[in-house]
Structure formats: structure tokens, C-alpha cells
Write a structure and sequence with these properties.
Length: about 400
């Protein structure tokens, strides 16, 4: 087998022009398939990352369903559903057994000021005690709110990276006062930079977090006011959060006075539902990538097969000589088969390398990455095409009669 490989490599290096032309079809085909899958995977990852603000292993109580809303329920029914209340949050926080953390939050957009500097359209988030545990806030400077600050609703704030850069510039923001809705808030912490997401979903960079009870002093929160969201983080041993969701549904129906036959006037949502819906869409795009690249690979495969037939024809006398000197059929077969596989692997490697170079091109907020999975996909597809394109010419060469082969013109 080693000698067959050596013969195959020698032929490839001897006929460089033919080798180069043979590579084009496979290179283009592999490049198309890998580039499509790389873009699809990168786009899917970036979109899913855009929903990281929804948390993981979390169930939220909302009026609306994130996905798969019941088509039999008119849209206005969802609007008529009651807002969540702080009392419901306290009840769940005290009674849930399948939860690791429970929090409540609400938000409004307004202007934030520090001395003569100001930022408009800043998201003000009123958050409960365990918000940092449910949504994993990364604090760069300072600290999170203390339990006493949360319970008493003190005028303290945790600000995003962009807010800190714009309002304070080169000044240390810790301990300084910002003004929101006429209220003075003392900055106790600054969050790490998060950056912009592909879909422009909310980022902590342009947010100001304050205790929830402080938020209620500034904005009306209740049945007809700002609708707070209750978020519950499950436990690791509750697979699929089935136990948590069942427990939450029972408690919410009880506290809202719903009878067993009454329709629920709330939705229990999980971020994973959005991720699953996104994956379904990108699976379809992936199939389209196979179709687009498949035609190019098919053309490239036939091109290599024709080249291999030509190669067999040119080397018929050499095959006859090799057989007359005792070369076995498998030696001849592997010689041409390895030549075909090497052609496809080299073409595939060039295609993958071109895709790798494309990842350095900036695509705005889209971060493109060539994964090991797609590299291996390129190698596997190239190998399969090499075997499929070379097996028939190789078998033809292996079956040649040595006497007839040596007589060939």
C-alpha cells in the first residue's frame, strides 16, 4: 500500500497542469459547502447569543408566549391578561421547591444624567434580589446590590459599560451620583462590556440597574401599570424543568384564583423554545447548502473520473509491465484510487483554506468562525468524492490483462 501511495504522489507531481485543472471542481464544491455551513453555523450561533439576555435554564412568567402561541386564542385575549405582581413574586419565592433562584424585574426607557453629560433612551431595569444569579451579570468594577439595599429600595445603581464611558469618561464612577427621573442614584458598580448583538437585542452596556422597590417609586407597577416579569432559575437535576413548570403553573393558578377548567391567563416561557425554533429554520438553510454545493461537487467528481480514465489510458503499458513483474491487482487498484483521493483531498483542503481566509473579513456584528466540525466535514466529503470518482477507473486498471496492456499503442 505504501508503494501505491508513492506511485500516486509521483504521478500527481509529474502532471501538475492536469492536477491543477482537476482540483478546480472539487475545490469550488467543497468551498461552497463549507462556506455555506460556516455562515449558517455562525449566523445561528450569533442569533442564539443575541438571546442570552433571556438566560438559560430559566422559566419566565409573561402574558405572551415566546413561540407557538395558540392560534385559537384571539390576540386581544393576551392583552387583557393581568400583569404580574410583586405579591406573586414573593409567593413563588417563598414556596417554590424546584427553583434555585427567583427574581422579578421591570424596565422603562428614559434619560440618565451626570453633571452636564446625559444619555437618552437608556433602559432602566428595576431588579429583585437574585437577578444576578438568574441572569449572571458580570461586574467589572464595584459590586452588586446588598440584600438590605434591595429590600429597602435604596437609591443605588449598577450601570452598563457604555453608560459609564459616556457619562464619566475618565472619572471613576463608583460612589458618584447620577440622576434618573429626578432621583439621585449612587453608582455602586459597573458591568463588563458586552458588545452589540447581531439582532440588536437588549445589551447591558446601555442599561442602568436599580433595586426593584426603588423602581416602583419612580414608575407605577401593578395591574394596570408597568408589567414586571417573574423569572425562575431551575435546578440541574430537574431535566427539562418539567417539575418546576408544573409547580409554577399550580401556584400561579392558585394565587390568581383560577378554577381547574379555566384557561390559564399567563404563559410560562423558556429561552430554549426560541433556540429550538431558530435551529429548525437553519436546518432548512443547511439542506439548501448541500444542494448548492452538491451540484458543484458532482461536476468536480465527474471531472476527476474523466481525468482518471485518461490517466489509465496513458499508463496502460506501465500497468502491463508492472503486472508482468508480479504486481498484484490490489496494487494497481490502490495506485489509481489513492491518486483520485489525493486529488480530492488537496482540492478540499484548498477549499477549506479559502473559507478560513474568508473568516477574517469583517461582517459587522456577525462573527464568522470556521469550526472543527466543518473542517472534518470537508475532509470526509472530499474523501468520499475521491473514492466514488476513482473506484471505476481504478477497477478497470486492475482488471487489465498484462499481455494486452503491454501491446497497447
Amino acid at each position: 500500500m505504501g508503494e501505491s501511495i508513492r506511485f500516486a504522489l509521483q504521478v500527481l507531481t509529474t502532471n501538475l497542469l492536469r492536477t491543477t485543472l482537476s482540483l478546480l471542481g472539487v475545490t469550488i464544491g467543497i468551498m461552497l459547502i463549507i462556506s455555506v455551513f460556516t455562515m449558517v453555523d455562525s449566523l445561528e450561533k450569533n442569533i442564539k447569543d443575541s438571546f442570552n439576555f433571556l438566560g438559560s435554564n430559566v422559566v419566565t412568567v409573561n402574558k405572551f408566549s415566546f413561540v407557538n402561541a395558540d392560534p385559537n386564542i384571539p390576540w386581544y385575549v393576551y392583552f387583557r391578561r393581568p400583569n404580574n405582581t410583586y405579591a406573586e413574586y414573593e409567593y413563588l419565592n417563598s414556596n417554590l421547591r424546584n427553583a434555585s433562584h427567583v427574581t422579578v424585574f421591570a424596565n422603562r426607557s428614559t434619560t440618565v444624567k451626570f453633571r452636564s453629560s446625559s444619555m437618552s433612551q437608556i433602559d432602566i431595569m428595576g431588579v429583585g434580589e437574585a437577578y444576578e444569579n438568574v441572569y449572571a451579570l458580570n461586574i467589572e468594577l464595584g459590586r452588586y446590590f446588598s440584600l438590605r439595599e434591595i429590600e429597602s429600595g435604596r437609591n443605588v445603581a449598577l450601570i452598563g459599560h457604555e453608560v459609564a464611558q459616556t457619562l464619566f469618561q475618565n472619572i471613576d464612577p463608583i460612589g458618584k451620583e447620577i440622576k434618573v427621573m429626578g432621583q439621585k442614584l449612587v453608582v455602586v458598580g459597573v458591568l463588563e462590556k458586552e458588545g452589540k448583538s447581531l439582532l440588536g437585542t437588549p445589551s447591558s452596556d446601555e442599561r442602568v440597574y436599580i433595586p426593584f422597590k426603588m423602581f416602583t417609586k419612580m414608575y407605577y407597577v401593578g395591574r394596570q401599570g408597568t408589567n414586571p416579569t417573574i423569572a425562575v432559575k431551575g435546578t440541574e437535576d430537574d431535566i427539562g424543568l418539567v417539575n418546576l413548570q408544573n409547580e409554577m403553573e399550580g401556584m400561579l393558578r392558585k394565587i390568581r384564583g383560577l378554577k381547574p377548567k379555566d384557561e390559564a391567563n399567563f404563559e410560562l416561557n423558556r429561552p430554549e423554545a426560541i433556540a429550538d425554533a431558530i435551529s429548525g429554520v437553519f436546518d432548512i438553510v443547511g439542506y439548501a447548502g448541500w444542494i448548492i454545493g452538491g451540484f458543484s461537487i458532482l461536476v468536480g467528481g465527474f471531472g476527476i473520473m474523466n481525468i482518471m480514465f485518461v490517466s489509465v489510458q496513458e499508463r496502460t503499458k506501465i500497468i502491463g509491465i508492472q503486472k508482468s513483474l508480479g504486481a498484484k491487482n490490489y496494487f494497481i487498484l490502490f495506485q489509481f484510487l489513492f491518486e483520485s483521493i489525493f486529488l480530492c483531498l488537496i482540492g478540499g483542503a484548498i477549499g477549506v483554506f479559502i473559507v478560513y481566509l474568508l473568516t477574517f473579513i469583517p461582517f459587522g456584528a456577525l462573527e464568522v468562525q470556521l469550526t472543527l466540525k466543518n473542517i472534518l466535514l470537508g475532509v470526509v466529503v472530499s474523501s468520499i468524492i475521491g473514492v466514488a470518482s476513482g473506484i471505476i477507473p481504478s477497477a478497470k486498471a486492475a482488471r487489465l490483462d498484462p499481455v494486452d496492456a503491454m501491446r497497447a499503442a
